[in-house]
Design a protein that fits this description.
- With about 325 residues, this protein is mainly alpha-helical.
- It contains 17 helices and two strands.
- The radius of gyration is 23 Å and the shape is globular.
Length: about 325
């Protein structure tokens, strides 16, 4: 039940079931702990410590399945050092453990360390799988390691025996787009053995908007529309590109197509958990709790970025 609720996105229900099980004095197994840890999207730090203590008391902390779940949990909460401590102490590391720690390092901005761990994996003689290589390519993407990323991507099939999937193509095209190599990114899409998905075209489209190439933006947007890829971003970035050039009639045409096709602009949002409370932020909306102070700090940070010579893209509101 816990695993099923967690798999379908009902993490809070899974946690309640786990608490009910403990009240009934039913001893959790290693699979129970692993399931409940995987069910919680972003667990509070104090909950994570409690689960870790429970795993140690139950003697499951050295279990590879539980250890991987604990590493993933700490990585989600930003406590990547705690995740690394568990990894280092493992007597036997399976590929899932290596993959978990590499993904954790990558998502916590430690791309160079991900590549170091990948080298250690190869030295251990373990063959990487598609998840391993996805983590490594994502690290190259986040770190801007274009040469290293292209080298690993090119060696996937022959050296590692892994056929590149959409997640690998998405990483490498986004890496090239961020480096301003739009031509190479588009060339890669033409060599793919399957139809590029929405995420790949969105990466290219964002890059076109950032680098101000209106003609290429139009071509990519038209390609996405022809393929009937359901992405409001296509129309949003297209109108933004037209607005930068003062092409107001073109903006009107795009908005007419949006209304005709029933496409609504997606509002950007984010959230953060502080002291057991989740705060949500929607684009263009002042947060009811301390919103003005938050945006005041944001403006100060923006000014500091400009003073440092940083370039940022102001998204369509």
């Amino acid at each position: 039940m816990i695993s099923s609720y967690g798999r379908y996105g009902f993490g809070e229900v899974a946690l309640e079931l786990f608490q009910l099980m403990l009240r009934e004095e039913i001893r959790p197994t290693e699979f129970t702990l692993s399931s409940v840890l995987s069910s919680i999207p972003i667990p509070p730090v104090e909950h994570g410590s409690q689960f870790h203590s429970m795993a140690i008391k139950s003697g499951f902390d050295s279990n590879a399945v539980v250890a991987s779940s604990l590493m993933e949990m700490y990585a989600k909460t930003g406590s990547i050092d705690s995740s690394m401590e568990i990894f280092v102490k493992l007597d036997k590391r399976d590929l899932a453990s290596w993959n978990t720690v590499m993904m954790g390092l990558t998502h916590n901005g430690r791309a160079a360390e991900t590549l170091d761990v990948f080298e250690e994996l190869l030295e251990e003689g373990l063959p990487p799988d598609r998840i391993t290589l996805a983590a490594v390519l994502l690290a190259c993407n986040y770190g801007g390691f274009v040469g290293k990323g292209m080298l690993i991507f090119s060696a996937m099939k022959e050296e590692y025996g892994v056929m590149p999937g959409e997640e690998h193509y998405a990483c490498i095209t986004d890496l090239l787009c961020q480096a301003g190599q739009l031509g190479k990114a588009i060339d890669i899409t033409s060599t793919m053995p399957f139809q590029p998905g929405c995420s790949i075209w969105e990466s290219i489209l964002r890059a076109c908007a950032i680098y101000g190439d209106v003609k290429l933006t139009e071509n990519v947007a038209k390609r996405m529309m022809d393929l009937q890829l359901p992405s409001p971003l296509t129309y949003s970035l297209l109108t933004q590109a037209y607005a930068m050039r003062g092409r107001w009639e073109a903006i009107v045409r795009v908005k007419k197509v949006m209304r005709k096709n029933g496409i609504n602009k997606v509002t950007g949002c984010s959230w953060i958990g502080i002291k057991n409370r989740i705060y949500t932020f929607n684009a263009g909306e002042l947060q009811h709790h301390g919103g003005q102070k938050i945006y005041m700090v944001l403006r100060l940070l923006t000014w500091e970025m400009e003073d440092e010579g940083c370039v940022y893209l102001e998204c369509d509101k």
